[in-house]
Amino acid sequence: MATVELRFSALPEHVRTARLVAAAVARRAGVDEAVLDEVRLAVGEACSRAVGLHASNDIAAPVRVLLIEDEKKFSIEVGDGVPGGAGPAGAHAGGEAEGAAESESEGEDEMGLAVISGLVDDVEVTSDASGGVIRMSWPAASAAIVP
Fold first, then answer.
1. What is the mean pLDDT of residues 13-41?
2. Rounded mean pLDDT of 119-138?
3. b (16+ CB within 10 A) / e for 106-137
4. DSSP at 10
5. How far apart are the C-alpha atoms of 146 and 15, rounded to whole Å?
6. For tag attachment on the chain, is the N or C end more exposed, with fewer CB atoms within 10 Å?
């Protein structure tokens, strides 16, 4: 099992780099070419969500991305550093009535999770005291393509 770990400052300009790296590793892991656009979009959404959560919660820690090659599966984990429990949609739970900006941010968060769920069949959203994680996986060919 090979793993690539990526950490980047929570800035929107780094999301594109994460998408490109994820697509390259997915291709190498044997993910079907027809699915690579979905991988790129899902990683972009997950990373954008993490960047937004870091910005709205004043978190200085980097966004974490793990790209995991298994024999028959390629997985991606995107982690944020925002501690808290998961709400019904898997989003971070916040306090009651924290204003219109907070409500709008939660709406964008839920929309991002909906987009990811539409792109990825196997997705799991969790959160604990150390932050949230979105785990996504796709089938991979047993014989990985080596560049």
1. 95
2. 93
3. beebbebbebbbebbeebebebeeebbbbbbb
4. S
5. 25
6. C
> d(Cα 6, Cα 39) in Å, to the nearest integer?
16
Alpha carbons 116 and 18: distance in angstroms, whole number = 16
pTM for the structure as a whole: 0.80
Q: Going by DSSP bridges, is the β-strand pair 131-139/122-128 parallel, antiparallel, or unpaired?
A: antiparallel
**111 is written with which tokens?**
């929309």
Express each pLDDT in 87-112 by its tens digit.
333 444 444 434 444 555 566 678 88
The tens digit of pLDDT for each residue in 137-146 reads 999 985 544 5
Instruction: 135-138: list long-range contacts, CB under 8 Å, 24+ apart.
Output: 135/75, 135/76, 135/77, 136/42, 136/43, 136/46, 136/75, 136/76, 136/77, 136/78, 137/73, 137/74, 137/75, 137/76, 138/26, 138/31, 138/32, 138/35, 138/38, 138/39, 138/73, 138/74, 138/75
Residues whose CB falls within 8 Å of the CB of residue 33, separated by 6 or more in sequence, listed in order: 27
Quote the crossing angle between the two packed helices 15-29 and 36-56, to the nearest 10°: 150
* Distance, C-alpha 129 to centroid of its chain: 18
Euclidean distance between the first and the last CA atom of the chain, given in angstroms as a whole number: 18
